[in-house]
């Protein structure tokens, strides 16, 4: 159980970061008064895309939704709120949007240096996408 109110000293979070080798971290606040280029960023987050690295997010305050594609290419909406952590594997198509509160504060975690590049769909030729699709096929068997 993660403690979002005390993330700086949370031993559970510290252990997750150690075990998964999440060596880089920052905090992003998504709110019109806190995020430069808010409207542009919100549109970018909501464009269906993938990354070549895992995307790890830990919600420290507020709430929102990650939408991911299932094996049949249908959307699954994942409600995220304070205390939730998600790892989206490299190669999965996804998007993020705020809920009616229009506010979220999240920790972004990376293995090594952060890579922010989103690849909008279609991006099926990347090795990360092919590896993810192979994983889905193996899981279905």
From TrEMBL:
Enzyme Commission (EC) number: 1.13.11.54
Which reactions is this enzyme annotated as catalysing? 1,2-dihydroxy-5-(methylsulfanyl)pent-1-en-3-one + O2 = 4-methylsulfanyl-2-oxobutanoate + formate + 2 H(+)
A Pfam family that the UniProt record links to this protein: ARD
GO molecular-function annotation terms?
Answer: acireductone dioxygenase [iron(II)-requiring] activity; metal ion binding
Cofactor(s) required for function per UniProt? Ni(2+); Fe(2+)
Q: Does the keyword Iron apply?
A: yes
Top-level EC class: oxidoreductase
GO CC, alphabetical: nucleus; plasma membrane
List the keywords (alphabetical): Amino-acid biosynthesis, Cytoplasm, Dioxygenase, Iron, Metal-binding, Methionine biosynthesis, Nickel, Nucleus, Oxidoreductase
InterPro entries reported in the protein's UniProt record = ARD, ARD_euk, RmlC-like_jellyroll, RmlC_Cupin_sf
Q: What is its main location?
A: membrane
Q: Which domain of life is it from?
A: Eukaryota
Q: Topology relative to the membrane, per the entry?
A: Peripheral membrane protein
Compartment list: Cell membrane; Nucleus
Is Nucleus given among the entry's keywords? yes
Q: Name one GO biological process term.
A: L-methionine salvage from methylthioadenosine
* Name assigned to this protein: acireductone dioxygenase (Fe(2+)-requiring)
State the gene name recorded for this protein: Adi1
